[in-house]
Amino acid sequence: MKSALTLLLGLFILVFAWFVVPVYLIRLNVIYNLPVFDNSLLRTLGFIFFLFGFSATLYTMHQHLLTGRVTPVIIESPKKLISKGFYGYSRNPMYAAVLLAFLGVFMIFGHILLLFYVLAAVVLFQLVIIYKEEPELKKKFGKEYSGYMKKVPRWFSIPLR
């Protein structure tokens, strides 16, 4: 039963964050005649950012599913520490990927409220990571996670290995 609820919550967050909020913000942007950045180079880069961010989000979700989690929603405790793949370069590659995809959406559509959405997501993710996830992971995985924290930065590193 808990797995079904977690899956439903994950789907709700996915639909709400990736579709409902951006569409609503675009609508508000139009209603209030707020600035829209319209540049073909920006739009092209945005499309690339979105594709990479969305693909990386799906990849990291798949890594979570392989560990036995129903969804990577923060209410479900991780069963295993993931340190391979993108997690070898960032302790939070899913958040980084989501932010990159959201930034891509802003660049594609150009509505200023979408940029504020990206900035709000950065702040929210940072607070969730620092005050909820990292303390829980330290408690659950102990020295293994502490060592991982020393080797891998919170957001990203350049893969020079």
Automatic annotation (TrEMBL):
InterPro entries: Phopholipid_MeTrfase (IPR007318). The keyword Plastid does not apply. GO terms for cellular component: endomembrane system. It comes from the Bacteria. The chain crosses the membrane at residues 41-59, 89-108. One of its GO terms (molecular function) is transferase activity. It is a multi-pass membrane protein. Keywords: Membrane, Transmembrane, Transmembrane helix. It holds the Pfam family PEMT. It is found in: Endomembrane system. This is Steroid 5-alpha reductase C-terminal domain-containing protein. It comes from Candidatus Woesebacteria bacterium RIFCSPLOWO2_01_FULL_39_25.
